[in-house]
Amino acid sequence: MHYYFMRKTDMTIRHLKIFIAVAETGSMSAAANRLYLTQPTVSQAIRDLEDHYHVQLFERFHKKLFITDEGRQLLNLALMTVGTFDSLERSMQHFQERTPLRIGSSLTVGTCLMSNVITDMEKAYPKIEIYSFVSNTTEIEQKLLRHELDVAVVEGIIESPELSVLPVVEDSLVLVCGKNHEFYGKNTIYASELEGRRFAIREKGSGTRKLFEQYLSAHNIHIQVAWEANCPRTIINAVIHNNALAVMSERLIKHECRQQSLKIFRYETGEWERCFKLVYRKKGTDTTQNLCRPTGSTPSSPSIENLRTVLERYRTLNLPDEIPSCIFKDD
Description:
- The chain has eleven helices and 13 strands.
- Strand 8, helix 8 and strand 9 form a beta-alpha-beta unit.
- It folds into three domains: about 80 residues, Arc Repressor Mutant, subunit A, CATH 1.10.10; about 110 residues, Periplasmic binding protein-like II (D-Maltodextrin-Binding Protein, domain 2, 3-Layer(aba) Sandwich), CATH 3.40.190; about 110 residues, 3-Layer(aba) Sandwich (D-Maltodextrin-Binding Protein, domain 2), CATH 3.40.190.
- Helix 1 packs across helix 2, helix 1 packs across helix 3 and helix 2 packs across helix 3.
- Strands 3, 4, 5, 6, 7, 10, 11, 12 and 13 form a nine-stranded mixed sheet that branches. Strands 1-2 form a two-stranded antiparallel sheet. A two-stranded parallel ribbon has the order 8-9.
- By secondary structure, it is α/β, with parallel strands linked by helices.
């Protein structure tokens, strides 16, 4: 045997808005005109409310409507409810208008550049909602491939042909020593002098470490790894306070060089010059990713293009004039 139950009409925000319009205008026809509805539609909505709550909301007298005590109580609650709903609608529409952009950056880039870049992005493009993730180049690449990031800025080599790479910001690695190190009093350092020296280096997966290890291997130089860290500040402290040497981005140490707590040696061949690169998912492979010039690739979304525009402001490696120009040379 089947039993069927009559379901009461569900009350909606639409019912409440119609009721408010009738209460404010005192007329079904005036409410219909305000809401661009037919009068029978308005009348039906009021009947639905009265049936649903088992109350009379209006008294009819000489073709005029007068709100009842029950109607006034409902009106107060309806105004609050509709006001809350309208506020929710505005908030959610504002949220929908914002475009999420998940930006990854390698540790060097995240430390010396991305805070300023994101500040510029938020000022220039307030409708972009930015999430930032900072790690080494290897992990950033994997997150791009897993669609966990939309775009990244890294200094290391990108291996996957599924990612497009666009050089955008100039950078250079330099040899660094603290003022208590014997190298501090020199203006020229030769490659052979690095043999057996104590170094603070980045963790595996770092683009900076990879480039330096390639140099050491090519020149058959062996160093002592005294510090290994995934934090550039830790490496800087090891150089300043623990007499370690390091090879790191020139952009990271401008303040310390001004304070003369560090001394830098630029590699005379230019072999340590590199670029921070904009990386995003795209078919094909850029074979020119290590050159500091555009590849002709076009970012795949307006938000990524906006990021590229902001990064262009930081393209040139401008360092203070007071930083002395010391040289690192091959033998």
